[in-house]
Every structure is written in C-alpha cells, then in structure tokens.
Amino acid sequence: RETRRLPPGPKGLPILGSALDLPSKFIFRKFDEWANLYDGFFMFSAAGQKFLVITRTDAAGDILEKMSLQTADRPTPPMAVYMLRHIVFTLEPYNDRWRRCRRVSHEVFNIRASENYRSLYEEETKSLIKDLAHIDPLLLGKRLTQFSGTLTYRAMYGSDAGGDNTDEKIHKVWEMVEALGDAMSPATFIINLIPALGIIPESLSKWKQYGTKYFTEGTRFLMDMAEPGLRGKSQSGFVASCVRMRDKVEGISDEEIAWTSFALYGAGVETTPYTLHWFILAMVLYPEVFRKVQAEIDSVSGGSAPTFESRDQMPYLRAVMKETLRWRPVLPVGLPHMVAEDVEYKGYVVPKGTYIFGSIWNMCRDAQVYPDYDTFRPERFLAEPAAPDPPVFGFGRRVCPGRDFAQNALFLAMANLLWAYDFRKATDDMGKEITPSTTELDGNLLVHPLPFKCVITSRRENLEA
Ligand code: HEM
User: Fold this and answer.
1) Residue 275 in contact with ligand 1 by CB distance below 6 A
2) What is the ipTM, given to two decimal places?
3) What's the pTM value of the predicted model, to 2 decimals?
4) Residue 397 and residue 403: Cα distance in Å, rounded?
5) Residue nearest to atom 36 of ligand 1 (CA)
6) Tens digits of per-residue pLDDT, 170-215?
7) 140-157 and 271-285 helices cross at what angle (nearest 10)?
C-alpha cells in the first residue's frame, strides 16, 4: 500500500481505481471534469497504473520542463508494444534509440532545415487551392487530410516519390497510424488496462496475433517505401537525408530510418489538416476576424498568391494561427510522458512509472492566462503584454520536433485559403443561417470537427489553372 503523500485526485474503486470512469474516447473531457476539482494537477489510478494529469502551465513547466530528465520517458501501452516491438522512437523511453532517431528528426525538420521544403509546401498548397474551387464543403476535411498526407509523404520519401499508386500507399500508412492511435488510448484495448493478461500465449491471444501481423507487414511495407532513399535512388526527403547523415548518427539502421519516417509521418499527418479544419470553422463562425485577416493578406499580397516572403508582414495571420492552435488544440492531452524515477513536487511524491498527461486542453483554457478562453480572439497575442504561446507542441525533451515544419505548412495554407476564397455560414431552406457546432468532434487522442456545412466562394480568376 502506498504510504507516501501522493497528489490529490479521484479515488475510484478498490483495485480498479478509476478504470471504469475512463471513457474509451475523448479522455480530455473526463480530465476537464476532474480539473475543476483540483489545483493545477491531480492523480488517479486505473487498474494499478498511476496517472498524473497536469492542467496548468506553471505545473507543466515545473514537472515536464525543469524536471525533464526524470519525466521524459514515454509509456508505451502493452498493445502498442505488441505492434511495434520498440522500434518507433516516439513511443520509446528516453534511451539510445530515442536519441538516435530524435537527432535525425531534428536535423531534418529544425527551423532552418524546414525552409528546404518551401517548394514542396508551395506545390501542395497550390494543388489544394485549385481543388477547393468545386469542393463540397462536407468533404473539406478529407481534402485537407489529403493535402497533408501528400505533403508529409513527399517530405519523407522525396519530392519525386510516388508513382501510380501513391494514393494507395498514403492510405496504407494512414491506416497504420489510425490503428496505432487506437492502441495508444488507455481504454480501447483491455490489455492496456490489465497488462497481466499478457501472460496468455500468442496462439490464444487475438491481440498478440494482431500485433505480430501489424509489425511484420508494417516493416515490409515501410522498408519498401524507404527503399529509393536508402539505396540512393532518391536524393530528397527525410530518408535520403538520414542516409547522408549516417556518419554523424552512428548505428542507425535501415529499419530504424524506415520506422522513424513512419513515426514522423504518423505524428505529423493528422495534426496539420485537423488544425486547418478548425481554422476554417473559426473563419466561418467569426466573420469579423475573417475579414480582418483577409484584409491583411490582401494588402500584403495584392493580386498574386501569398508566399513565405510575406510572413513577417502578416502579424495578424500569425496571431490567428496561434489562436487556432489554442482554441481547439488537436492533441488535447498531448502524448503521455512517464516518470523515470520518483519526483517530488509541492510536498507530494510522483512515483516512478507514473504516466503524466500534460492536459493541453486545460492549459489553453486557463482563464487567468487566456481570459474568455472559448472565444476566438487572435488579438490576445498582439496585446501588451501578449498572451503566452499556447503549449500545443508539448513539453521538455519530448517537445514536437515537427513544429517548424507544421507552422510553415499552416502559414502558407491559411494565407492562400483566405486569399483565394471567402468562407461563410450556409443557410437552410428557410434562408436561416446554419451555425456549425464547435463541440461535436471526431477522432480520439487527436480531435477534429465533424464535417460542417458552409459556403466557399472563389475570389480570384483562374484558380483552377
Ligand atoms: C499542428 C501541428 C502539430 C501539433 C499541434 C503537434 C503536437 C505535438 C505534441 C503535443 C507532441 C507531444 C510532445 C510531448 O510528448 O510532450 C508531439 C510530438 C511529436 N510530434 Fe508533433 N505536432 C504537430 C505536427 C507535427 C509534424 C508535422 C511532425 C513531423 C513532421 C511532428 C512530429 C512529432 C514527433 C515525431 C513527436 C514525438 C516526439 C518524441 O517523442 O520525442 N509533429 N507533437
């Protein structure tokens, strides 16, 4: 029995703890409910596993940034271990494999290196803008996802990657990412809640068989995708860059490179389009912000499509981007960290092995930091003093290595979308405006709006050219 002073939190049932209170989807909503009862952080247990949930930025700074060495491990739910066999660095503890793979990711996607992808962003943004000319708004989310899928795929495997079955390949990686997302959630698979079930032999265990199949087929498929970069047949993209860096990052294997491209693809592919989907929703719901940011884009870009050169001249658009990321963070509870050794905080002990969730959702809705937090108000980032950047890219040593790549893609897509199109509410048969919901969601750990009706009107000639 734990005799040390643990952080306060819901007690739940004996043995099971709060396991039965955890929803299989949208766990952030449960955390949000509990957050109101505790001051900045709380702890609960589920079937013997302890969870610390941090709901305020100051506590996240203390625990996940200042004590980052002790809190940078990543728990991998048992189901994900069966599926990945420890090869994906994103889901590994703070160990040598993590360092090797993280190093190459940083080298290829840091702020300077992200600039190398400019022509890629420009080509994919142009193609997105062209396709929106006749799109059914209910299919917007799908097209944004395709935009990000192709962009990230080409960033991984080279701008010349593809061939006839590119869409099929992108779809396959997508399916692998989705399956892994389910395996990451604490309550989707029973094995994640009761790891002791792992003693059941594979011949009798459906989830172990599923895990083995996922890993074997996944390795074959990813090695195939990485092959041109690994063998020097393709010179651009992440895989080819890793091969060029091999002497700097000793010991990195072909399999690690192939699965790291998947890790990056998986972490990046949904976050960007989901953010863009929330952005368009915000533009429909807040026409005064929409008009203001569109006027800024028009005054800088005039008749030609916005490019990266105009970024510094668009402070309001940059604030709109921050506000979108804050208003509806696509990863509301981030990715879990794990405590490598006992940590003391404010007189409490957070024991080794505890999972930590930095609840980004709560931090972005802290009324002290972001007053009137549910209103989309980019001005908060331009005020004196300006609101701090929302912690949407995570914490400490685990902070998102794709954040510059993502923000470049977001900037260019947002600027071009509003330069090319007007977005407004649709009307029903009676001529009454339809207001899309901001609370109905889809996804799980990652969240995006449900398809919504709106009117998209072109404001430029020849967009389809
Ligand atoms: C709007 C876009 C994005 C958001 C909001 C976002 C957010 C996050 C968050 C919250 C984490 C967890 C950090 C932590 O553990 O504390 C993370 C990790 C990660 N992200 Fe992103 N991300 C975005 C785009 C991208 C892109 C485009 C890539 C790749 C090109 C990427 C690659 C990664 C990787 C590899 C990790 C795991 C890092 C590790 O475990 O060391 N992300 N991201």
Assistant:
1) yes
2) 0.99
3) 0.93
4) 14
5) 400
6) 889 889 988 988 887 766 778 887 888 889 999 998 889 999 999 9
7) 150
